[in-house]
Every structure is written in C-alpha cells, then in structure tokens.
Design brief:
Elements lengths: L14 H8 L14 E3 L8 E4 L6 E6 L2 E7 L7 E5 L5 H9 L9 E3 L5 E3 L8 E2 L5 E2 L1 E7 L2 E2 L5 E2 L2 E5 L2 H23 L1 H6 L5 H4 L9 H15 L6 H25 L27 H15 L7 E4 L14 E3 L7
Antiparallel strand pairs: 1-2, 2-3, 3-4, 4-5, 5-10, 6-7, 8-9, 10-11, 10-12, 13-14, 13-15
Length: about 325
C-alpha cells in the first residue's frame, strides 16, 4: 500500500471524532467486516478502521493489526485518556500524523502550566491495557493540546553520553594522529592541484565515498599508532587518499553553494565543471584538518558514547537535550 494515501483519511484525533466516525451509517454483506468494526474511509480499505466492543467506553483506531490509538470517553470533568502506540514504518508515521495528529517520537504538547513539553509516542511499548493491547504512551488530556503529566506516562527514554573512558580514548586518538594530520596540511597545495569537483559530492545530503581498502588500512594504522608503533607506507598513502577525497568533497559543496559556479550533473551534457580556482572561498588547512579528523573518528570508531542517563518524563522544551536518545523500560547499559 502506498503510504501517501493516508492524507485522504479523516482526522481521528480524540474520542469525539472517533465516535462521530463510528456512528456513521455502516452496512455491508462482506464477511471481512465484523459488527465491532467500522471503516475509516470505505469498506474496500479494511486496513484503515475503528474497532470497539464497547464504543460508549472506548474506540480503537487501527492500521492493519496495530492499535495506533485508543480513545476513552471523557470523564465527568471532560478529561480524556488517550493511549498511543508508535511504529517505525513510513506508513505508520504518516498515519500517525495524517489521522491522529501526532508526530511520533518528536511529538510536543503543553502541560498544565502552559509549558511546551515533549510528549513522545515511541515505538517500544511500556504499558499493557486490560485486554492485553500494548501502548507506548498513556496521556490524560485536560484540554486540547494540554496534558496532565501527573496522570500520564510514556516509555522511558535515555540520553546517550560520552563516559570519561570514551573521552580519554578520543583524546588519545587525536594525539596519535596529530603529527600525520600536520603532514597532510603541508600537502594542501598538492590537494588543490589535484582537486576534482563534481555534482554528486556537492549536492545536499551527499557524502564523500571512502574506498573499503582505504578504510581498512586506516583502521590498521590507528591500531598501530595506539600501540606506539610506526605505520607503513601503504597506510600513510591511504591517509593521503582520504585527505584528497575530503578536500574534493569540501570544494564540491562550496562550488554547489556558489551561485555563479558551474557544477552540473553528468546527464546535463559534456560541459566541463568549473575548477577549484573559481571558488570564491578556498579550502583552508583548518577546514581540511577538521574534515579529515572527523572522518577518521568515524572510521576508527572513536565517536562511541557508551554512557546513558534517564531523562524525565515530559521534559520541557528548554530542558530537552539534543543528541541521540535510547528508548526502553530498562537501563541500556545493563
């Protein structure tokens, strides 16, 4: 099924909208439909549906066999309990946004104080309802877009951080590679003369391809340097090739961003690309060193962050840290 079709479905963002859809006239002789089910759009699309054995109490919103949301009828105070379950598929993410009005793990709402808070709907469940259905978010809405955080919960999440050991290893890698990066900076005129700019490396979201044999040689060189030994010529040659590749990538991206620079894809014809000399802003030794070092850290796996700390539930926007989050009910380090 094409995920884009979810935008044609109605909004089902709360119990009232679910009940209005449920109460629409429904008649079919198809054996595929049961009396506890209702279509979201038409009877031909059974994978989009509502289900409930007691619609006066709750209504489920399903995508295929997954209960994406369960809406309980509001209580006497008008407060509404809503359960959600995330999923990593493209269709599920679009369904979450187009139908349920939420954005999954990056979902935001407001607390009772009017502060903007993270209200994530993760892909890992933490809660099992009375009928065995699993959910990753249990929210109590007291008003549109406002959650009572004292009566709500979501799957635990953890911030990934560098431990002192990670930082020490990273510093050691930086130290042993420093003399060889200095040597590469002396070769900057050579890299300028040999520069090859192309559209594939310059366009947004593109990267510089590093050949497997160069990656392997640099990983071995890293091990040799950490042991206090000297690398052999082939490993240093791999570093030269890496430096040239990173230089080409930096120059290509600057050429792509420069309005008067000719950097066309190959299918546009045989017009030659402009050369490095036509760049308004040349690549400096600092630019190249930073780029090569960052790539080296990736290649030798020096960017590992093995520490974790648990983030609070419903973190305010001001307190929400950036970076990678790990989701799960148990400590990831154990």
């Amino acid at each position: 099924m094409f995920s884009g079709s979810t935008h044609q479905l109605p909004y089902i963002r709360d119990y009232a909208e679910a009940r209005a859809q449920w109460d629409k006239s429904f008649k079919t002789r198809s054996a595929k439909w049961n009396q506890f089910q209702r279509p979201l759009r038409n009877i031909a699309q059974r994978h989009y549906r509502l289900e409930s054995t007691n619609p006066d109490k709750f209504i489920d919103v399903l995508l295929y066999s997954t209960i994406m949301a369960r809406y309980y009828a509001p209580d006497a105070n008008g407060h509404e309990r809503r359960l959600y379950m995330g999923d990593s598929s493209i269709t599920s993410k679009k369904f979450m946004w187009d139908v349920l009005g939420h954005s999954g793990a990056d979902n935001w709402s407001f607390n009772t104080n009017g502060e903007r808070i993270a209200a994530p709907i993760y892909n890992r469940w933490f809660f099992i309802d009375t009928d065995g259905a699993k959910f990753s978010a249990d929210f109590c809405f007291i008003a549109p877009g406002h959650i009572d955080t004292e009566k709500s919960r979501h799957t635990k999440h953890w911030k990934v951080v560098s431990t002192p050991a990670d930082l020490a290893h990273r510093a050691k890698v930086r130290e042993v590679w420093a003399p060889y990066l200095d040597l590469m900076m002396y070769r900057l005129p050579e890299f300028e003369a040999e520069a090859e700019l192309n559209y594939a490396m310059g366009r947004p979201f593109s990267g510089s391809h590093i050949a497997w044999e160069n990656t392997t040689a640099l990983q071995k060189m890293n091990a040799v340097l950490l042991e206090g030994c000297m690398p052999h010529e082939g490993q240093i040659d791999a570093l030269v090739r890496l430096s040239q590749t990173m230089f080409n990538g930096l120059a290509s991206k600057r050429g792509y961003a420069q309005g008067n620079f000719n950097l066309k894809p190959s299918w546009w014809g045989k017009n030659a690309n402009d050369g490095y000399a036509k760049l308004d802003k040349p690549i400096t030794a600092h630019d190249l060193r930073k780029s090569v070092h960052n790539k080296l850290e990736q290649i030798v796996n020096a960017k590992v962050r093995s520490g974790y700390y648990e983030l609070p539930q419903f973190v305010t926007e001001e307190a929400m840290p950036g970076g990678t989050r790990i989701v799960g009910e148990s400590d990831p380090s154990k």
